[in-house]
Design a protein that fits this description.
four-stranded antiparallel sheet, Rieske Iron-sulfur Protein, nine-stranded antiparallel sheet, alpha+beta, 2 domains, binds FE2/S2 (inorganic) cluster, Naphthalene 1,2-dioxygenase Alpha Subunit, Chain A, domain 1, 23% strand
């Protein structure tokens, strides 16, 4: 089995089987080996600010509830009644003292406990009279994730008690994630989610999106209309011009990667305002930049966008977002986009950004539509019995990646246009799918069959 999986991704030759993107059996295995073990992003603490707040989320195909209990503690709970499986919560978000199951009315508090109250409408109806007080309610609370972590406001969870701490899982790539989560003035985790989550479904395999966000710079040609018409909502002109100076970096041992700049001291960092049409907004960004220069002089500022294996991507630059690609069968993905803004930004800045985000990103935005069309048709054209016999090509830049000291554990994959980050993602995919244990996945225990990522021979 593991041997068959290994053959699907041919790292030395830069090719991967199309079945990875269409096969039902492989998809079922992904749910167990990848989504059953990896760290997945569930939401943001700003979405459940008050005691007894909740929001519905997903982990792979599982429906989960992010809650803040009466004491203010956060929880991630499986949205499935312990009695006979009914969803105990069917609202996207809200505030409640109890989740009362519509089927037979078992009721749970926001920390997941089955209510310890006999008789009446809530708790376990008939606990005294029909269950004869024999049902041990402490054993029948909602299922909780094995581990949960609040990382600078973002909530992550895993079903695997043996998974390494989130920080170890992220490695030094987390500094790039920080750049999306910190406020523009550099305040740690100083961001909030603007409005709510934008969600949509597309008939494509879930891996198209993270392998695109990990550094598919060449696909800028898909967005040519935005460039040619100079209609970017940022008003800043050509996307490819703005992208100059970006490089592709990958973490071959962890499966993460992205497009960004080499580390630069803070005083050299400058973000040209992309809001020329909105002077008040430009002024806000100029002010926070100046503040940052003074208060964080000498700090390294990591700038970029990328993918955290398996299904979380982010943009540090505008539009500043986190995107989670939820699998919904081998041929469908449910996209969730969280738009991030400085928590203490003035309302007019937030309002302008809201309009800007909606016109640029998401299913109604200009750039997302180009991407969605590509992924939809690529999925469709890859599932035929003939089509799936021929591999995808990831040879751009093959063998030209070099170790990079700037980010520990990373390699420099070349100037923007390279497909090696995508190969890094698929390499990690293969390792999870082969069933490697965490010691092997985190490279604490070397495996004799380990295939090193091909680096430039000098
Ligand atoms: Fe929930 Fe029966 S399924 S109470």
């Amino acid at each position: 089995d593991a041997e068959q999986i290994r053959e699907l991704v041919d790292i030395p030759n830069g090719v991967a089987s199309r079945s990875i993107f269409v096969d039902e059996e492989l998809y079922r295995r992904e749910l167990k080996e990848i989504f059953g073990r990896g760290w997945l992003m569930v939401g943001h603490e700003s979405q459940v600010p008050e005691p007894d707040d909740f929001m519905l989320s997903r982990m792979g195909e599982e429906s989960v509830i992010l809650t803040r209990d009466r004491q203010g503690e956060l929880h991630v709970l499986l949205n499935s009644c312990r009695h006979r499986g009914m969803k105990v919560c069917r609202f996207d978000k809200g505030n409640t003292r109890l989740f009362t199951c519509p089927y037979h009315a078992w009721s749970y508090t926001t920390d997941g406990a089955l209510v310890d109250r006999a008789g009446g409408l809530f708790g376990v109806p008939g606990w005294k009279t029909h269950y004869h007080e024999a049902l041990d309610k402490k054993e029948w609370g909602l299922i909780s994730v094995a581990q949960m972590r609040n990382y600078k406001g973002t909530i992550w969870a895993t079903w695997d008690i043996d998974a390494p701490p989130l920080e170890e899982y992220l490695g030094s790539f987390r500094y790039w994630l920080d750049s999306a989560l910190n406020s523009r003035s550099g305040e740690e985790g100083g961001s909030t989610v603007l409005v709510g989550v934008q969600k949509w479904r597309v008939k494509c395999n879930w891996k198209f999106a993270p392998t695109n966000f990990i550094g598919d710079a060449a696909h800028a040609v898909s967005h040519k209309s935005v460039n040619l018409a100079n209609i970017s909502p940022s008003g800043s002109g050509r996307r490819d011009e703005r992208a100059k100076g970006h490089y592709a970096f990958g973490w071959p041992e962890l499966g993460h990667g992205g497009l960004g700049f080499t580390p630069r001291p803070e005083e050299e960092w400058e973000q040209g305002s992309v809001f020329g049409r909105f002077p008040e907004v430009s002024e806000y960004f100029r002010e926070v930049f100046e503040k940052r220069k003074v208060e964080r002089a000498g700090e390294t500022h990591y700038q970029g966008k990328g993918t955290i294996f398996p299904n979380t991507s982010f943009h540090e630059d505008q539009p500043r977002t986190i995107i989670v690609h939820h699998p919904n069968g081998p041929e469908e993905t449910e996209f969730w986009r969280y738009y991030l803004v400085d928590a203490d930004a003035p309302e007019f800045v937030k309002d302008t950004l809201r309009h800007y985000f909606m016109t640029y990103s998401g299913p109604g935005g200009m750039t997302e539509q180009d991407d969605l069309e590509n992924w939809l048709y690529a999925s469709d054209a890859s599932k035929g019995m003939i089509a799936r016999q021929f591999p995808y090509n990831y040879q751009q830049g093959l063998g030209y990646s070099e170790p990079f000291d700037g980010y520990p554990g990373s390699v420099w994959c070349g100037y923007r246009e390279t497909e090696q980050n995508q190969l890094i993602f698929l390499k990690r995919w293969s390792e999870f799918m082969q069933g490697w244990n965490w010691d092997e996945l985190m490279h604490r225990t070397p495996r004799p069959d380990y295939v090193p990522f091909p680096l430039k021979s000098t």
